[in-house]
């Protein structure tokens, strides 16, 4: 194994119909028009020396190292900024340009610390490489002149930060003495990340990189790592490389956090990860990353990891470490005992969207083939199940319609119920790039998310609706489209079911759906809704992106269908730049749904009651399968409380923290006789467990994840499982102990079975993934290399189906006792219930969940920022710190749910989506008041949360 090094063409790859042919050093080359001379040369394998150029950034032309001679042109143009032209004759290695390059390098090196042997970039430094490439042998200017290694007094006085390294960021350092002011970091922050945190301050010799006049930690920087990636020297360097040295081999794998599914090179020394570097050939991220995937992987080897199986007879007993065999035999015996005593339907399992497709597929197979019931559900139930229902009903497929790069062709973007800069940061960077190019933006969100106004991006309309009124708002937009003659009539006539359309058009045109009538519910001024509707329908390609702010409502499925109606009515499905696109929360939400882990569906969304489908599975699995749908998670818990559901296998989920109405969840868990948890850490749910089976982190896994664009990406094992077994092996062992043989020896064989059983995966194999990098399903005979865009010529279901989407307000209403509405969300640096990110240095940005409250509501209650407040709903109450903020509107409060000590779900209710039971996390009626204490259980949790204290200690050590 060796380090994977992608080719750097120096300037971005251009795509153009017109081609130009030129000659470089006597060789002819044909490239798309707009390609630079530098990139054209690289396509011949000719590396022109360069420092300020890299192909993730537009050419800048500052270092003057890439000079070439071009016949018929005066001077020596920079090859990075010169476009290739038809008939051009270029020479890259004349005496003249060699001399000039050497001179440039001499100047750079005369002002550079000559500590290469002890430099952290030694072996991976472009300055060092270029000194070698130009044949630098001496520096005529000496090293005694003014330089940045020992800055003069005036310089130091002008900017005290200049003197020392900036080590404030937990993951990388900035050492100005090594900076060559190539501007790559500044441009990366602008062009790739879109944060604009860096500038070059000063002029000429005094130029330096500045994080807005402060240190990195105190700046606008969001720690995406793009500048570190772009830096050609050791100026911006990962602390892990400074500590451990350069990696020596790498493997490409997939981030285990959000549904963007970024590809990374895990760069290693032996079996130790040195750094995670975003992979340029990864199609979801194209070389970009966010702070979580790039830096927050330390949890994988955190000391809290449990690596030995454990059992206990009662949840009040202490845990006892046992062998794998004993743990698995115990669990199997308990499940069989329970089934014998309470019936075959008294046990079930929950799969995880954190796990691979192969792991998920095996758990649902275990339930159906070994438990012999359909009691399997997935954590996707609590996030995106309405997406599956809504898009399948209207369009015919339970998945988003586009690939991520489609956003580059969007003209109007509607973001509803999603906060991409925090939740899906790498996709947000793509979106912001398109917005900076001039695409228009409509944001529908109760809260002022960053996208509403961020550097060089401002929403045309912020529809600041009241929580729970998505359906009314989308209906109102569609009402304007229909009543103002903005329907894409040809498209609807050709592509959609006309009878359904006509019924829908009459419904939506009714006055009760008008912006004026719905304003009462939504709180959004009618004129604003009309403006947004006209923009969306008439602005060119209209693309809808949405998140859990749409799905986690009692009418989540209705909103998804309302958005599909709107997209069809405006002709915005079936080509680049348009579509209805769910931004999936967890890394494998799409995959866990695809793999048949819903209680009513086999893989590929086929109902268990369908005889033909069931027979195919029965034949392959060799057992009769249950025709009745099984229990959803809430039903399992209800039946546990009722005394009929007694045994649960939970792989990679923490339902005691992540599911709504914690009291009810824990009551259900406590009523069970055997709860088996498979996880990395002793999580909240493990408090109710009888068997603990150690899980493996993504770095220890082999398999695949499927991201929000239906892209199946390989997850490659970079280190052996710390507990000695992968999850898929444990599931096989458990099935065997239950008397059902599975017999795979590698996850690729599980994928082969998935492909045989699932029409949309029929063409997927590990060999193909090796060859193509990734594929988007459907991948089968009709689409052997996958399907980036869905519904291109016709909808998967045939004709697009308009659905009636009546607005039925949630029963959860603000009233005299609970006058405010709570809504929840995520923050960039933390992830879901925080099991991973809380065990990393990311805590430096978000040590605790806080409650955002509008100044008006805060003043009425005498609350100031930093006050401890009690947040109460009819389900329960918690205490947390308040932050007075105008990001929320009066009457609405907001918090995150990343910390177990907060227990935000103690107060959420058990209302759920009418079609799918997806919980209504996003609307809870609450009251807030000042308090001076935490709840007793919160006090206990705070004491138990030793990981926080350890991290705080390490941060303090690092600061010293
Ligand atoms: S880490 Fe990202 S956000 Fe921070 S300065 Fe670098 S490029 Fe900008
Ligand atoms: S910090 Fe690195 S990328 Fe930025 S200007 Fe200096 S050398 Fe170039
Ligand atoms: S955007 Fe999502 S997938 Fe990409 S690095 Fe960040 S957390 Fe990982
Ligand atoms: S690489 Fe062309 S000017 Fe720097």
In short:
InterPro entries: 2Fe-2S_ferredoxin-like_sf, 2Fe-2S_ferredoxin-type, 4Fe4S_Fe-S-bd, 4Fe4S_Fe_S_CS, Asp_de-COase-like_dom_sf, Formate_Dh-H_N, Formate_DH_asu, MoPterin_dinucl-bd_dom. The protein has 960 residues and is an alpha/beta fold. Helices cover 31% and strands 16% of the residues.
Largest sheet, in brief, is:
7 strands, mixed
How many β-strand stretches?
36
Structural class, from secondary structure content? alpha/beta
Distance from first to last alpha carbon: 37 Å
* Portion of residues within helices: 25-40%
CATH architecture of the largest domain: 3-Layer(aba) Sandwich
The outline comes out as: globular
How many individual domains? 5
If you average the pLDDT, what whole number results?
91
In terms of DSSP E residues, the strand content is 15-25%
CATH topology of the largest domain: Rossmann fold
The top-level CATH class of the largest domain is Alpha Beta
Number of distinct helices: 31
Radius of gyration: 29 Å
The poorly predicted ranges are: 951-956
Say which molecules are bound, naming each kind only once: iron/sulfur cluster, FE2/S2 (inorganic) cluster
In what order do the strands lie side by side in the largest sheet?
A: 13-12-27-26-25-14-15
Family: In the C-terminal section; belongs to the prokaryotic molybdopterin-containing oxidoreductase family. Belongs to the complex I 75 kDa subunit family.
Organism: Chelatococcus reniformis
Protein name: Formate dehydrogenase subunit alpha
InterPro entries: 2Fe-2S_ferredoxin-like_sf, 2Fe-2S_ferredoxin-type, 4Fe4S_Fe-S-bd, 4Fe4S_Fe_S_CS, Asp_de-COase-like_dom_sf, Formate_Dh-H_N, Formate_DH_asu, MoPterin_dinucl-bd_dom
